[in-house]
Specification:
Radius of gyration: 18 Å
Number of strands: 9
Order of helices and strands: HHEHEHEHEHEHEEHEE
CATH architecture: 3-Layer(aba) Sandwich
Distance between the termini: 15 Å
Strand order of the largest sheet: 3-2-1-4-5-7-6-9-8
Strand content: 15-25%
Number of helices: 8
CATH topology: Rossmann fold
Bound molecules: S-adenosylmethionine
Structural class: alpha/beta
Number of domains: 1
Oligomer: single chain
CATH superfamily: Vaccinia Virus protein VP39
Helix content: 25-40%
């Protein structure tokens, strides 16, 4: 007889394992306007904790922090001496969005010395410019959530890959989103051009706005990260996994059921 699977944790029960992050997720996250799920923030900051356990260090970058919801969570996961860089056009829905971003960071405990705010267009940025902003240190974690076109994602992916440390992680927002079906084509093409990279896991969507994220890493780091993710988020593993033909990866979800068959 097959054993019943444990119930998956709810979004509210998900933890990164970093006290400052988890406090923000519980008390601040939902109050900051944004489009990333609490579930994804907990897993991504859990990955930042895992990186620290594996002695992976370096700056953290977000392309498209908007008002700071996800960025603040990432910044609370920084270790001593690390900084978080936010790159945004800061012109949507109005130019005051930059002030709101700064105010949200200050209100939720991310001091000015832990963050670099860069009003810039990632589509025209070179890896050398990005690395210079990071003081020459390659990033350990880059969240890409800027312009949602195939061309812009392709450009952002190349930029991120060039500024990433070998043990680094790239997270892509709004994957498999019904409104942006061609983003998946950009990811598939990228994986074809970069056989050194693979999808580490898929973080399933919470709502249509708080959509699915893909987590990418170098192939040689896949097993180390996967083992730690499995340990931390066992209850939220969707049993069948994701097939990237031929590569398989974890799917973390708030709904781990399978279709009923007779
Ligand atoms: C969907 S919002 C990001 C939401 C946020 N990451 C979150 O999780 O709450 C997308 C952001 O990307 C920014 N953006 C769009 N195109 C960009 C570009 N070419 N360079 C930099 N930022 C860009 C927009 O200004 C906007 O703030």
């Amino acid at each position: 007889m097959s054993e019943a699977l444990p119930a998956p944790l709810t979004s509210e029960q998900m933890r990164s394992g970093i006290p400052a992050v988890d406090r923000y997720l519980d008390t601040g996250y939902a109050t900051v306007p944004g489009m990333s799920s609490r579930f994804a923030a907990a897993v991504c900051c859990g990955l930042l904790r895992i990186q620290h356990e594996l002695e992976v260090a370096g700056p953290v970058v977000e392309i498209g922090p908007f008002e700071g919801r996800f960025f603040i969570a990432l910044a609370h996961a920084l270790q001593k001496g690390e900084i978080a860089l936010g790159i945004d056009l800061f012109d949507w829905p109005n130019p005051e969005v930059k002030d709101r971003f700064e105010a949200n960071c200050a209100k939720h405990g991310v001091p000015a010395e832990r963050r670099i705010v860069w009003k810039a267009d990632s589509r025209t940025m070179t890896p050398a410019e990005l690395l210079a902003k990071l003081g020459g240190k390659p990033a350990r974690f880059i969240h890409i959530d800027g312009e949602h076109s195939r061309a812009a994602l392709t450009k952002d992916l190349e930029l991120a890959t060039a500024a990433l440390s070998p043990e680094g992680i790239i997270v892509l927002d709004d994957m498999l989103h019904p409104g942006y079906p061609t983003l998946m084509v950009a990811v598939q093409d990228y994986l074809g051009r970069h056989p050194e990279m693979c999808v580490l896991c898929i973080i399933d969507r919470e709502t249509v706005v708080a959509a699915t994220k893909f987590v990418l890493c170098r192939t040689e780091w896949f097993k180390r990260y996967e083992e730690k993710l499995l340990e931390a988020y066992k209850a939220n593993v969707w049993p069948l996994g994701a097939d990237f033909e031929p590569h398989w990866c974890l799917v973390l979800s708030l709904d781990t059921r399978l279709a009923k068959i007779t």
